[in-house]
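Researcher: Next sequence.
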Amino acid sequence: MRPWTVGDNVNLAVGQGDLQASPLQMAVAYAAVANGGRVPRPHIGLEVEDGRGRLLQRIERDPARRIDLPAGHRGAILAGLRLAAGAPGGTSYDVFKDWPRDLPIYGKTGTAERSSRPDDQSWYVAYVPAGRGKAPIVVAATVEDGGFGAEAAAPVVRLILSEHFGVEKKVIKGESRTN
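Model: Next structure:
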């Protein structure tokens, strides 16, 4: 094992180097930023019903924990995510440029390089606040061998968000080859 260096801090700050996170962990991180520091605890169900739809058991969620997230830091993170998805030159702008303006996308592409595979893993994580009568949502997608985040994962997230918010479904492959 090699010693930690300042360069490692720089790499991790931009999601490179030894960073290892699952799509679920990234979704939880985005949710924590979106709601001001409350870290949700993932769960797979709230109730158990029988075959006739009768409630058999209500499942209590574990309480969320809180992290200290200064408002200025939160604002800077959200502004960067908004520009990446909603401003010309942003890494996923091509995918979301015609997305409804009343449903702002806060998202970022990612590309995981793996020495064991010939093609990169495409990543995209996005947060959209509540709108059109729907709850806020965080979506994380990865596409094995999908290339850059805008090429494969961001279009998948757009389709999921379209379904959630009742927006016309379009498959739009992004052109950005940066992360």
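Model: The two ends are 28 Å apart (CA to CA). The longest helix spans residues 71-86.
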